[in-house]
Each structure stands twice: as structure tokens, then as C-alpha cells.
User: Fold these one by one.
Assistant:
Number 1:
Amino acid sequence: MTHVVVTGSEGFVGRQLVQRLLADGLGGQPIGKLTLLDIGFAAPPADARVQALAGSIADPGLRARAYRDPVDAVFHLASIPGGAAEKDYELGRRINLDATLGLLEDLRGCGAPAPRFVFASTIAVYGEHLPPRVDEATLPNPGLSYGAHKLAGEYLVADATRKGWVQGCSLRLPGVVARPGDGAGMMSAFMSQLFWKLAAGEPITVPVSADGVAWWISVGACVDNLLHAATVDPVRLNPRRSYQMPVLRFSVGELVEALAARHGADRKALVRYAPDPFVERLFAAYPPLATPEAERLGLRHDGDIETLIRRATA
């Protein structure tokens, strides 16, 4: 029976991933044990297969408890988001960089086959100074410590794979929607709040212009890709062990139009645009993106904006 570890399991993507693992297993194999790590748990799944460990992933003792039984796969989703990591560099480094290395080092000598290790990286590795077109050869240039630490994590995953500790794969996540709540600590929170505010008929002020263009993916499509990365034949992975997740690209104004078509034309008047140049550069100035390598591997975006809205708010 498969033992899977998920860090950041109480997060937006983590909760969806946990539901899928419990329902469908991993790669056709049922889950025998699912170990969840997060700083705390509101209500962990009432399932005998679940072990919920509360605490910081920077704690070696917590990680040792998670790895006490042989591990088949690790999904490392835990992080301190960009805005919060900028305000508290030490915390961001401890969780986003040091704990990633700890999770990998703890798996040394765990036996063959080495466990799968899927690392949730981010498009923040590209920074704010993007070329007219981004493809899989575009060099990263992080503009935040968050992006720098995530990029370093990608290299650590590739190095641990080279050493045989894990069979790793890093996926660069775009704006995953539609995250509930106010998105505390996340400068990109407006991307999800648009979905919920307009569905509820509530006003919203967004820190970018209507013409601001972002990269988008629903949480459902994101989880599809994470699961695929953990089950694809490792010989098919590139030497970098890193892929940009495919995305849909459209403007904030186009999203508002599509949401208004779904919920009512009056919704457009609820949106006020108050562009913040820094936020616009980081989250709403994205050029076309080409990901043929990722698509050949089997990674996918939502297909179209209507499908994204349906899956994001299901």
C-alpha cells in the first residue's frame, strides 16, 4: 500500500490534493497511509489512513515522524507566500529554502526505489523583467526572495535526484484560482477574490489595470498536473527535473467579462481598478508563454476561460 506525505496540506492546493489522493489513490495504487504536515489543522479528514502532524516543517523531529514508515511519494507544497516572505526574510528562508533541503536530505538512504518528490515551485522565479515571449529556455530572474528560494529549491530537487535520494520533479505554478478567503500575505490574492466577489455580487478593488494580463490555472487542473508529475515514467523527465506548468493567458478585464456573462452583466460595475505599479509588474504583465516540453510530458491547462471558471469555483 502506498504511503504519501503532503506538506502544506491545509493550504488551498493541499486540501484539493488530499481529497484526490484519498478518493483515487496515486498512479492506480490505493493509499495505505497519507501523512499530512502543516502548522495546524482545522479538521483533518476523518479517515483511518490519515496521519496529521501539526508543526513547522523546519522541525527535524516533525519530519522524522512523517518519514518513520517507508515513503513512496512526497508532495512538497508548504511555503511562506511572497508578500509575507518579503516582510520576514528569516521565516521565508527557513520554510521556503532550509526546510526544502531538510525534506530532501532526510530521504537519503531510504532504499530503492527512491521516493517520488514533487516540489511546488512558482512563476515568481521569472521575476518582473520578462522578455516579450517566455518559453522553457527563458532564464529565471527572481524579483522576490520567495522566487529566489523557490528557484534554489528546484536545483536542490535536481541535485537530490542526481544523488539518488529521490526521483524529483519541480513544477512552476502560476496563479491558481479560486482560493477562498482574503489571501493574507499574498499579493496575488485579487486573482482569486475576483471569482468569489463577483459571484456573490460584492464590490472589489483590484491593484492592477483591466488590461493587465496574467497566467491562470484552476486548482483542479493544478492538482491533475501534480499527480501526473508523481506518476510519469522518470526516464521521460528532463535533466533539470523542472517544468513550467501550462497556463491560460488572458487579461483581468477578460476575466471580468467572462464572470459577468456567467453571473450577470451588472457584475462589471462592481470592479474598481486601482493599479499598483509593483503589483502590476509582478502579477499582471505576463507575455505569451510556450510550454511544448511540459505538454509533451502530459501536463495541461484548463483549455478555455469558461472551463477554468467552472473548475475554479466547483
Number 2:
Amino acid sequence: MLETTADRPSEDARPAGDVAADPRPVEDRLTQAADVDAVTLHVGDLGAMTDYYRDALGLVTLAEGRAARREGHAEEQGGETSGRGEVVLGRRGRPVLVLRHTPGLPQPSRRQAGLFHTAVLFDDQRDLAATVLTAARHPRSTYVGSADHLVSEAFYFTDPEGNGIELYRDRPRETWTRGPGSRVLMDSLWLDPQEYLRAHVDEAAVTGLTDAAAKVGHVHLQVGDLATARDFYVETLGFDVAAEMPGALFVAVGGYHHHLAMNTWNSAGAGPRASTLGLGDVTITVPTRADLDAAVTRLRRRGVQVADDGAVVRTTDPWRNSVTLQERAAA
């Protein structure tokens, strides 16, 4: 079972001040049907990392080979993809992680901009508890802690190469509390991990781990400063502000508590990233090509460089975190 050893900052996120309804015209906002998709990680040991995510999180291989997905998107962070293996992992056909073998890169500094964690969302407490138990049992997992965020229940781990992982499930939206401007009320309250597992672990769910649904629910980044992060992710890319707290900004669409978060807890003042292991790409999906075109217009109007090959749109944030926008695959 688990013992909390977390020294991570609190994620209290309470509505701050009297916020009016978002005054931006619709063309300046990201479609409310946008979502986050698989996160790409640059890894040093592709075999070991693939085994870890299969065994610890119950992900299965959806594709593998040379640049199995998003060919050519590693130039900004970690060099060319040519000759380097790639494995796409997920559940029930839905990608969660793309592991890209990029040997020779150093580990990122704790104070550098980049990934704070990839958050994997489960449908219910049974599926969450089964994955938490499996992750906790894995000898190469580092358990970081757990928290009741009011809107969700979350457990935190670190993978063998130092990448943060959140495993969580959402409470029903009708139970969420909203403040002025529809900001979502979140907190970081004590969540007893052992009691949670005792209450919700189902051995059938553990045995059938790979059959349960899972997806990337949100991605949490480390950045150098929040004003610049807000300018890029809200004013330029078009997300809505969902919540704020000292040292962190939470953004979303469609009234979600957050699709992306940015914090400066360890990385205040950080400049553009050097090439390291860790975060390779964050993918955002939209329903139509028209939504991509609108995003391209916003980005270019603000002087942000964009690569548009007709299928996907690629850009980078001010810290060289790579962002891909693409049309959502038909169900």
C-alpha cells in the first residue's frame, strides 16, 4: 500500500476577485470542443520506458517503429526523428503517450521549463484505484502523493526517467463549485491513499486493467513566468482561464477545470528550454479544419511562428515547449 511522501506544492486554486464574463470575441477563443491528446516524451531507454508504462499503468502498444506518429516534429526539441524508434501507448485504441527514443540527451533540471506532469484520466474510482495499485507495486515507480482537489481525486508518481504522472478521476460536474466569472474552485485536501485503495480496489479491475478506458485529461507545465504563459495560452492560443492561484494558472475550454496548467513553483525565471529528455510535445485536438485555421490566424497575428502542413499545425510556446494542433480523428 501507499504512504504519502509528497513535498510537492499545494494546488489550491480558488477564484480570485470579481471576474467578468470573458469579453473576447469568439474568433479570439479556442473552440469550446477542443481537447488534449497524447503527450510525446523524449526517452533515453525506449525499451525500459515502454515496459514501465505497460506494466505500471496498464497501457498497451498501439503503434511502433520509426516515427510511428507525428513524423518530423522533434526538430524543435531533441533533433531529427530519422532512425529513432517510437512507441505509441494507450488504452482501448486511444493514445496516451508517445515515447520517442532520443538518446544522448541530458535529464532536465528541476528548475527548467518543461513538463510538470501528464495527467491520465479514468472513468471511475474502480479503474483509478486499479491503476494506482499497479503503479504503486512497480519497483521503478516513485510515489509522490495524493490529493482531493474537490473536482477530482488524484495520485502522483514519477516514472524512471523523472517525468511526472498524475492518475485521477473527475467528480461529476454538477458537484463542482464555481466562483465569479465561472472560475472553478479547487483545493488540495488530504486524501488517504490506503483508505482509498481499501475502498475501491477490485481485483477484477486489476486483472482487466488494459480493458478500461483512459485518456490524457490535462497536461501541467513548468514555465518561467505566468504573465507570459497567459499571453500565449489565453490571449494568443485562445484558452479560457479556469482558475488561478499564487504561482499557477489553469486554462481550459468548455467549462472544464483545466486542460492545461502552468506553474512557476520550481521554474520561476526559466528561459527557453535546452534539448533534454522529457517533454517532446503537447497535442491539442479540435473538431474541424476551420478550427485549425482560426488558431493559425490568431498565432500569426501575434507574431508566433507556425508550421502548417495541411494536416497538423505546429508551434512552440515561449519556453520552446512544442504544441501540435490537429483535427480530432472520427470516432
Number 3:
Amino acid sequence: MNIYAPNIHLFAFQLYKGTNLDPKFLNKQDIQLWNNADKIANNTFQNQINLQLTRHIVDIENEPKGYSVELIKPSEIKEDDYSINFEGYFQDNNQDNNQNQNQNQNEQLLIKGFAYPIRIYDSYGLWLNLRRPEQQEDDKTPTEDVDISLLSQFNPQNCLTIIPDKYFLGQTLLITAWITLEDKQNQTKPYNIAQNCLTAIFPQNQPEFNRQGELFGSPIFEYGLFSQLEKYQHVIIWLFENPQADEKFTQCYQILLDLFFFRSKVVKAFQDSRIIYQNITAAYNEIEKTIEEIKSITASDEITIKILNQLTDKLKDLPQKSLTYNHLLRNLKDYQNTIDINRNNYQEKLRQISGITQDGNLSILQTFYHQDSNRFYQQINADLGYFQQGSSLLEQATASIRGIVEIEQTKRDRNLNNTIQILGIGLGGGAIISGIVSQHIEKIKQPLAPISPNNPPHPFYASLFLSFLGILLFLGIGWLIANRNK
């Protein structure tokens, strides 16, 4: 099965600044996109090309201001072309069987490409193109059709799939090719052609088919399922059936770069939100565990000193749990805002494409706005609604413990005050009686006589007895005064 003039367009993006980025990251030698562009060029052309993209890029720390900045050095710009062009040769071993086998092995096909680095808002973007030209270099005649298996040489060692790091936002791989006259005559289904293209580019670990439609009158197929978010890869195969599709693609390719950028931002935000979702789920389970522990501690009818100390420890621990939990909720809300902002930017780019091409049928691209990104937004909204209960549980638990502790503390303080008051009255009254008795202290010097009915009580015994009786009397009075409210 043959195709005509296949094109590989890699749109990839990564953050270049942000609150969590190390300032040293601004070194352009460390930008993953530029390094990957070099690797892809080296791998696909078997070291025929030494792209060294960073050599052509402006000093990033002194780059021009603006929301969209082309990064090629002024000295490298030729005829208003802000990309770095290169070319090489692929081995063609798939000519007609009628041709000489030795000639087949020596046949080489010219492959061209370009790298277009750009900064969009807070991120870097790379548009890397590898293509079989539509026309011969010498006489401007159309190039020959090529076997679909040639596409495998565009992705040796799966180099077109960038391994993500924490700054990587995502990528879209767009493959365009013309349906040949032979396939039209044989009424070959475009879906079958697209599947063969996908198999040639990804012999293993192919992204799953998602949807199909038409764009500018030509069939287009999208691959990659959000249900497989951890290994999600976005691939589009667009098969041109008429010049209109190619012309309109040329009119809006710059906007398509922005469109895929905002799409990547939305998908990345949702991917990161799932990590926060797992963290916040663990935190919510920890909150429920803490609530159960508090219920177990307070199940006793009597609040002992040990229980009171346990509750006090929980009261110290809960504010930290609340701070961590609310921070996770805030992060989840931030991702929802990021999705909302970038999905609206995506929609704006769709309106621009529709205006430029005068074609309102962009349903294959609009599906992401109306269905996918909206589902992302609503999913986070549901998560926030559910996990808000965690904050309420923490607030209720804190208020409950604080109430128990304050009640017990008030009760203990009141009991202590009562005890002090009773002892104060009792001891004070006893001291008064002792003072009265002490006036007759000289009589204590009399010899102690045995206590008997015939002997009057010794003054010492009388003093001691009266003092003790006075203390008991005033302790009773003090107790009555302390408990008068009851």
C-alpha cells in the first residue's frame, strides 16, 4: 500500500518558567525539547545531520518580550523563515518487484525537515517536521509514491515519543499524507490506510483508536484514549483527498501550533490533578481515621487526665492536618482553573481557524473542547465537592475536641477553686480558734493528767479539740458557700 508525500509534524511543549522551576533551568543547553530535536534528527538520518538546535537559538535570558516569541537568532533568519531547515536521505527498499534488486538496495529518497522553536506564554514549543517532498528538486515534477512501510524510518527506536520529565507538557504527532490514485481506484478505505500508517510508525505500543471525522473535506483519524491517561499519547493521521485540505492546512498551521499547545496544557493539568486526587484521597482517609480515634477516646463516660492529654495532643495535630488538606484542595482548584483558562484559549484558536479558512466544520477538533476538556473540568468539580467534606470534618472535630477540653478544664478549675475556698475557710477558722486558745497557753504547762471522769480535761487537750472542731466547722461552712449555686 502506497501513499504520496508523507509528512510528520511533531508539536511538543514544556514549561520554561514557574514558581516551582529552578532559575538555573533557564540555561538553553538544558531545555529538553532542543535536545530531543537533535536526537530525532540524528536517529532518523542515521547521523547524517548534526542539527545542534541550541546553537541557532537566541540567548534565552535576553529573549524578546511577548506572549509568543520566535527563538531563532536574527543571523539565522533567511527570507523571513524562522525555522532551521535540514535534509538527508532514507534508504528505499520497497520499489516495484519488476525493478532490479540491486538497484532497489541502492535507491535513496530525499527527506527534508525543519525545526521551529518558539516560546508561548510560560512555555517552550517545538514544531519538528520530517517530510517526503511533493516535488522533485530538479524539474519540479511530483515525486513518486512511497510504500507506507517507509514511515518506520521516521521513528527509529521510537524517538518521536519524548520521554516526559516534570516540566514536559505533552506532544501531538500529526501525520499527513496524500491518498494515491491507486487507492482511490481500488476504493481502499481511508481507515485502513490510516491504520497501516500507524502500524508503520509505531510497530509496538500503538495508541488506541479514538475517533474519526473530516477536516477541510479530507478524512482525519485521532488516536489516544484518556481512559489510558498514564500512557496517553496523542496522534492524528490526516489523509488528503483534495488540494483544499492541504491549502487550508498551510493557511492555519501557525494557529494549529497554538491550538495543540493549549490542548497539551489542559491534558497536563488533568493528569497532574489525578496525582493530587490520590494524595487528597489518602489525606481524607487519614482524617476519617482521626475522627474514629477521637470517637474511641471520648466513648468513656469519665474523662480522665489520660484522655484529656490525648485529646489535647489531637487538638495540636489537627491544625497541621487541616493546613495540608486545604493546601491540596487549593492545588486541585488551581488545576481546574488552568483547564478552564486553556480550554477557552483552545476554543478561541478554533474560531480563528474557522475565520481564516472560512470553514465552520471543525467538529473533529471541537470535540476536545465540548466533551473531553469539559469532562475534565466537571470531574475536578465533583472531586472538590466531595472532598470539601474533609475540611468540614476537620473543623467539626477541632471544635468538638476544643469544647470537651474546655468543659473539662472549666470543671477541674472550678473544683480546684472550690477546694481552695473550702480549705481557706476551714484553715482560717481553725487559725482563729487556735489564736483564742493560745491566750491560755500558759496553762498548758500544767502536768498532763490521765483522762478520766474524775479529772477535768487538760488545757492542751481542750485546745487541740477545739481547734480541730473549729476547722471542721469552718470547712463545712466553706463547703456550703462553695456549693451554694448548686
